[in-house]
């Protein structure tokens, strides 16, 4: 293992068990991501991107293969150890923001810290700090429904940052946003990567968004078909055909 390897995946397979039988989704995925990388994941709808992200985020387990996250073999950890590792290492950002509608922004950002057993004063202090950092300090007591989509995504980023993650996993974080707002969100990810050294793995269907990353991984039918420069991001439509 190299000193700065954050993610090491070898020969990973994933199949879903369904009433109709097993559905194979990921095939022989091997991939290393070093600390400080900014990786875009592209690929047609149904190619396994979210399945892969869920495994990276320790929200789901592979059927076989090995996943080592920050030196820990994820497959060897019990539920508590896995939750602890997830809380310590990973921040999640989703397409749909996933904010609690009836909780104010401060509570939304502070809530995951409760599960990470951070004490109350520290939870609120961090929530306000990261909301401020996202330019939302004056909305601490507002409900998610009273701010824009771009602002809601900034709350979700503040929530991810409050856990002081070394890795941010973002599954189509700009999928619900207009072009200008998407750029603002991507500028935030870029800053977090270059200035704070946070490793970012981000799924997108949009070549313009993938260009913010430094490395592109493309999935087709559950296999990696490209792992290299982001200049290949524009080939996405050719790969996708009519599927998207
Ligand atoms: N819980 C599940 N049970 C059974 N099959 C599933 C489940 N979740 C996903 N799948 C199947 O796995 C395949 C990959 O799905 P996944 O959501 O990972 O694709 P994706 O690349 O993220 O697609 P999109 O771009 O539309 O988000 C699809 O064929 C999907 O139907
Ligand atoms: Mg998906």
What does the model show?
The longest helix is centred in the last third of the chain and has 18 residues, at 179-196. This protein has helices spanning 49-56, 79-89, 105-115, 120-133, 149-162, 179-196, 207-210, 236-240, and strands at 5-18, 21-34, 38-42, 64-69, 72-73, 90-94, 167-171, 199-203, 215-220, 223-228. It has eight helices and ten strands. A hairpin with a 2-residue loop joins strand 1 and strand 2. The chain is globular. The protein has a six-stranded mixed β-sheet, with helices on both faces. Strands 2-1-4-5 form a four-stranded antiparallel β-sheet, with helices on one face. It starts with a strand and ends with a helix. It has 244 residues and is of the alpha/beta class. The mean pLDDT is 93. It has one domain: Rossmann fold (3-Layer(aba) Sandwich). The structure holds adenosine-5'-triphosphate (ATP) and magnesium ion. Residues 16, 18, 23, 25, 43, 45-51 line the site of adenosine-5'-triphosphate.
Structural class: alpha/beta
- Structure summary, number of beta strands: 10
Shape: globular
At CATH level 3, the topology is Rossmann fold
Structure in a nutshell:
By secondary structure, the chain is of the alpha/beta class. It has helices at residues 49-56, 79-89, 105-115, 120-133, 149-162, 179-196, 207-210, 236-240; strands at 5-18, 21-34, 38-42, 64-69, 72-73, 90-94, 167-171, 199-203, 215-220, 223-228. Magnesium ion binds at residues 49-50, 171.
